[in-house]
Amino acid sequence: MGQMTPRTVALVGHGASGKTTLVETLLATSGAITTRGSIEKGNTVCDFDPQEKELGYSINSAIASTQWLETPIHLIDTPGYPDFAGQAIGALAAVDTALIVINAQSGIELMTERMMKLAAARKLCRMIVINKIDADNVDLPKLLGDIRERFGHECMVLNLPTEHGQAVIDVLSNASGESDFESVADAHRALIDQIVEEDEDLLAKYLEDGAEPAPETLRAPFEKALREGHLIPILFVSAKTGAGVPQLLDTLAKLAPAPAEANPPPFYKGAADDENATPFEVSPEAGKHILAHVFKVVSDPFVGKLSVFRVHQGTLKKDTQLFAGNAKRAFKISHLYRLLGKEHIETDQLQPGDIGAISKVEEIEFDSVLHDSHDEDNIRLKPLTFPQPMQGLAVETKKKSDEQRLFDVLHKLEIEDPCFTVERHVTTNETVIRGLGEMHLRAKLARMAQQYKLELATKPPQIDYRETITGKAPGHCRHKKQTGGAGQFGEVMLRVEPLPRGEGFEFVDEVKGGAIPGVFMASVEKGVRQALADGVVAGFPVSDIRVIVYDGKSHPVDSKDIAFFTAGRKAVIEAIRAASPIILEPIVNIDIDAPETAVGDLSGDLSGKRGQITGTQSRSAGTVSLSGKVPLAELDDYQGRLKSLTGGQGSYSIRFSHYAAVPATTQQQLAAKHKIVGLDDE
């Protein structure tokens, strides 16, 4: 591969590990910017959003590019707090290497582990960067031990701090030297041993004569070890002083994989729900058909919709005609941009491995594949797994005149964030926004107020309960109506049985001999579906149920769609009421980071809310990570409770786990309020 092939790198890790400052220092050291900004002054390249400047941490991913040793390096800075994980996870689809940044003071935190696992699952090359090595009260030998214990002994130092964290010494090219801790000679030997294991000839020669392999023979096995996760290099830096930053740039330019050296991105050909979809090999060659993948969409009030993508194959030029996904109509690229934070720098072309952007093309969506030939229709990139947004807020506009605008704005926010959803509940007449946590939703509300001048009133939403059955039961309804000349007649016999949790709904037609004419069976199913959607016990959707229609009667003149619709609806309601129905509630996994001293109070509080702690893990000095399960209904004011129990030191995030039966008293309270229209009032 030529020296000019780009390297693509995402900086991921927990909040406050210093990713944005590190990007700033990388850009300044490599000459991409002349002066280094700071978080405190609110003038960094990557935290350019007014909200980020005000809060002092990243809430969006941001792209910046630079060059080192004539090699283009594309950097994606990502947010570190779990509430904004959608932006960090999305960036993994665009890069070949994940740099997991760890704060030397706070050690391995929640997002360190999460991003480490996600990057491994995506088969990305991983490197660990330990930042803030010059800070007070850091215990680097202990942190190194923790990393090896948590992530395996393939985590090996590529350099070591020296001169009390003011500089670093490279252990790949130095067989001896001074470091602040650990022996350079031992680290060098261990690293060489690990690398040569990837090359049989090199290993045989090395074992035979014991001589050091020549440095140029090590790059290919180093790459292979990176690709296979056999080696996860650890580098030490101080983003503040710049110690170790030139060495990190050297590593990215010389040792991080170029697109052709990385594990191939998991493209496949076939419809999204096609089980027989086949893997599709993308080749990062400039002369082939264009294939690019959109990993980020931004609704910008000034530039309109901005689609940010990675080019995987072919050369993208200005004025090219492209298709988005399976669209039949092409669009023309009138402006092609490279990004440096908020700056959009016009460019004429982008090569494989480059990250770029196009504005004002409405048909492009998050996760779209862009291509220039119908040969590449139906090609997709294996989707990443995003956490399900569980934290909800019911919102309404303070001004009646803003109602229509609210949905336009919410739609814009929804298309750019895979972890933000908008639900319209007709039964409760609520508009509910859902995100990954309180910080996430607060950031959306602030953005609506600042950017779109939209003031909203909020309240806790109704819980997304479900209903299901625990037994089998028959149901029957003969619907007969005579009004003047024309009548209605339809009779339906069915039975219901439970399906395993999460299976949804199954409709089975077992009617023999045309007892219900085929033409009316769709109406029976429609009536059944209507009853399930409206709920039977307490007005919540019924799921995990099989409905088997086995008999019925019709009338040659009076049978009509409406008659079978009504009979199907009433028969299934009767059956569900007889099948020991229960109400289910969402249970969430909760992760809490808090001071060790608060563990007892937090466990007590959670068990008082029908929850339980399932695991604890010590973090850095005096802090601990708790994981547990708790009903979503009990987390109404959890941020406030957590604040008072931890003196403002705690944070939490939730993820959907499963549905479980509500306590009998709750079921009685919910059921008491419910009446089925057209049945209970007859």
From TrEMBL:
Pfam families: EF-G_D2, EFG_C, EFG_III, EFG_IV, GTP_EFTU. Residues 4-260 form the Tr-type G domain. SUPFAM superfamilies: EF-G C-terminal domain-like, P-loop containing nucleoside triphosphate hydrolases, Ribosomal protein S5 domain 2-like, Translation proteins. GO terms for molecular function: translation elongation factor activity. Keywords: Elongation factor, GTP-binding, Nucleotide-binding, Protein biosynthesis. Catalyzes the GTP-dependent ribosomal translocation step during translation elongation. During this step, the ribosome changes from the pre-translocational (PRE) to the post-translocational (POST) state as the newly formed A-site-bound peptidyl-tRNA and P-site-bound deacylated tRNA move to the P and E sites, respectively. Catalyzes the coordinated movement of the two tRNA molecules, the mRNA and conformational changes in the ribosome. NCBIfam families: PRK12740.1-5 (NF009381), PRK13351.1-1 (NF009891), small_GTP (TIGR00231). This is Elongation factor G. It comes from Dentiradicibacter hellwigii.
